[in-house]
Amino acid sequence: MKKYIPAQMIRKSRFITFFETWSKNEKAQLITQMNRLIKEN
């Protein structure tokens, strides 16, 4: 099974330039949500 790591996924995406403008709290919320979705699937 492939291991998904949200922070690595974001760094490798085109989304990184937009993500860098977010606050620390917003970044943490996104990573938390991504982890939850990964665990559910």
Report what the structure shows:
With 41 residues, this protein is mostly helical. The chain has one domain (6-40). 66% of the residues lie in helices and 0% in strands. It has three helices and no strands. The radius of gyration is 11 Å and the shape is flat. It starts with 5 loop residues before the first helix and ends with a helix.
Structure classification: mainly alpha
Q: Number of folding domains?
A: 1
Alpha-carbon distance between the two ends: 12 Å
Q: What share of the residues does DSSP label as strand, in percent?
A: under 5%
Spell the H/E element sequence: HHH
Morphology: flat
Largest sheet: none
Helix and strand arrangement:
Blueprint: H1 6-11, H2 16-19, H3 24-40
State the main characteristics.
41 residues, 3 helices, mainly alpha
Short description:
The protein has helices at residues 6-11, 16-19, 24-40. The chain has one domain (6-40). The chain has 41 residues and is mostly helical.
